[in-house]
Design brief:
A hairpin with a 4-residue loop joins strand 5 and strand 6. 37% of the residues lie in helices and 19% in strands. The chain is built from 6 helices and 9 strands.
Length: 202
């Protein structure tokens, strides 16, 4: 694919923001999936979404919506749309998030998703342990799912790479100094070994 034409096409349809998103799409494959750079896909940018807390109201082909025939769709919450200082980083990180779905074909609760998030955090010099979601049995018999204690909480795993505000692609490309994920983002799910023959949590 002609990368210049790819950016120009998004510029024509969506303006400067579209061109920027296209450039981030190219960077995401170059920095994170260099062996799959031929899998660059078109982007759809929806200027306003009427619900949700993040600009990452988005989807990857064959995952979020059957309507999507190809590419990635990015929607922006109205509060984040105009002149927001973090919007470009949000766009870049959202594109990374959706490419993980596209490349793995997996959902947030899969082992493959957790492994890929761990790999990308490592590339970006962000210190955090990522473990997959699993279902456990509470002492009272209740079933509950989550990620193991001390690893990234499942709520944050589903909105990877939140709460990181800066672009992961910038961090990777610039070999940014190592940082730690805030403790507030870590799971407090404490698992014991066995209880009546079944995994349990306190």
């Amino acid at each position: 694919m002609d990368l210049k034409k790819y950016v120009e096409a998004h510029q024509i349809v969506y303006g400067d923001l579209g061109a920027f998103a296209a450039e981030q799409s190219i960077r995401a494959l170059r920095l994170i999936y260099p062996e799959r750079q031929n899998e660059l896909v078109p982007l759809r940018l929806n200027p306003v979404a009427s619900y949700g807390k993040h600009s990452a109201l988005s989807g990857a082909e064959g995952y979020t919506s059957k309507i999507l025939s190809s590419g990635l769709t990015l929607s922006f919450h109205e509060k984040l749309w105009a002149h927001n200082a973090d919007l470009k980083s949000e766009i870049a990180n959202t594109i990374v998030h959706e490419y993980i779905h596209r490349m793995t074909g997996k959902t947030h609760d899969s082992k493959e998703w957790a492994n890929e998030c761990q790999r990308i955090f490592d590339l970006a010099n962000i210190e955090v342990k990522v473990t997959p979601w699993k279902k456990l049995t509470l002492l009272n018999g209740e079933r509950k799912g989550g990620c193991e204690a001390g690893s990234l909480d499942y709520g944050f795993l589903t909105i990877f790479p939140a709460p990181i505000k800066e672009s992961l692609l910038d961090r990777i490309e610039n070999n940014a100094p190592r940082i730690k994920m805030p403790k507030s983002t870590l799971s407090t799910l404490v698992a014991t070994t066995k209880q009546r023959g079944r995994p349990t949590i306190k």
